[in-house]
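Sample intake sheet
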Amino acid sequence: MFTNQFGLEVEFTGITRQEAAETAAHYLGGTITTPGDYYDTQTVKAPDGRIWKFMYDGSIHCQKKDGRGTVSTSGSYSVELVTPILLYRKDIDTVQALARRLRKAGGFTNKSCGIHIHLDGSNHTARSIRNFVNIIASHNDLFYKSLQIAPERMRYCKKMDAYLVERMNQIKPKTLSQIESIWYENYTGNRNGHYHNSRYHFLNLHSFFHGNHTVELRGFNSTLHAGKIRAYIVLALALNHQALTQKSASYRKVQEENEKFAMRVYLNRIGFIGDEFKSCREHLYQHLDGNAAWRYGSRENVRSHVGTRNTENGGQTHG
């Protein structure tokens, strides 16, 4: 699960791109250069040669602290951190430490900010991409509630399109070119454009077909909380691993009578096991209803449910 490469885009405000780059350069021991491009990019070259970028993004509502409150401010406070290619075991500590330093420097997020995770697409096949579509579709509601996707950001990370899912499972494409045709079926315009409208979904395959050959997950509200960033990365890598390794995946909605329990079962299934991922699980349970330990909410509810079921069965139990 943790051998796949990924990249991270983290949007925030509160400090300028220059201040963010200086913070990163100080922590990484790197040097800053300014290419002078449209995005006013500030690049930090680390001693290992990798480049960390701080770029302008027009979708960010720029703010800064003013006493105990915040005020709107200039576009220089629009910051999108774009990481180099990362590996979880090698780089997660660096990512978390940098997030903490950017927050300490004054960076913060608001409802306009998102996190996008790009997953290496080199190992994906038609089967695994179809799996990915079905995995996201079957967990749409659970993921959106768990991740608390802000209404202001829904236009940039829509749920899996029902028509797309239906077509994918009707045709059962065997090649990536077939999947590409289905993906763009309801869109017009040049597919080669970076900002093609098909990209604004929780699962973005436009980047896979006409970008850097990455599968992008866009369904994360931005944060500079190191633990939440880690939880989002682990979830993305686990979903990717499931899509790559599972023979098939159903697109039918999962049972969610107890949301926390449903999420716990699913997370265990895809690798969130043991103390190492306890905090990750807690971040992903936080906004769900129910009880993670008991399917029917509590011991009392379990007894009540079993009693009702036994009554319906004429007082008989079935082993």
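Comment: The two ends are 37 Å apart (CA to CA). DSSP finds eleven helices and ten strands in the chain.
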